[in-house]
Amino acid sequence: MAEPIKWRKKVILAKMEGTYGTDPTPAGANAMLMTDVSLSPMEGEDVSRELERPYLGAQSQFKVGLRAVFNGSTELVGSGAAGTAPAWGVLARACGLAEVVTPDTSVVYSPVTDDHESVTLYVWIDETLHKIVGCRGTAQMSVNAQGVPVIRWSLTGLFANPTELAQAVPDFTAWQAPKVATTANTPVFTLGGQAFVMRSFELDLGNDVQPRLLIGREEIRIVDRAEQITATVEALPLTTFDPFALAVAQTPQALALTHGTVAGRIVALAAPACELARLTGYENQQDTLEWPLRLTPLPVDGNDQFTLTLT
Question: How far apart are the first and last CA of the chain?
Fold first, then answer.
């Protein structure tokens, strides 16, 4: 009898596609260092034949609209060298973000409306290989006090039958160790120019990812986007910052968040026009009043709702 397949024995590779849906053959240098991985290898719909027969019984079903859905998290940290894209940058590009590299200076990610890129994923679970081409998706960036900042990726790609193949040897040298989110390591969090004491933060790209599986076109598409930000912060006197008045007036507020202090490992999020949602409740933590803020990053001139800059 064969040995059991080990769930924890995984290798995950990701590589940009030059042509949508064409496998660029990822190798060990394209390894993704991830946590909290899940895979739905055969999503789709079942279509019954609904045959009229002179007896009762189940119907055969066609398996249609097949796609695979992959989820996993990467630690939020730069490449270690300013102006060099991080290893997780390929995933950002597959989530509708443009990557602009200024050598020796910075890498900037920002949303784009057209010409979304795609990646091929190789996901090994032990020696069972899932090749998933044409992947596009969405993501959530989280920074929580006393935790490791992460980006949670959800990628959808075209289905192919898995195979048995020896694992590639992953090369993780491009991945840097992260820093926990603390006052020292996360020196900037402001909203409307006002500094806040922050408990938690999340930016959700809010991409609407849909399979478009037609005759003549089989593609995973990003058809819309609606970013959302949530942040739990210590409340301030309303004379200092009034989220109620700002929400009613729909007055956009600039948001800034910086994590990291060493060149090559600094990640800075800027959202220039965040509209506050209704503050529908308070939170009590350690007998301290906290605001669970909800914000919508709005475009100013288009495709500028936010930028994620690595320096």
Answer: 53
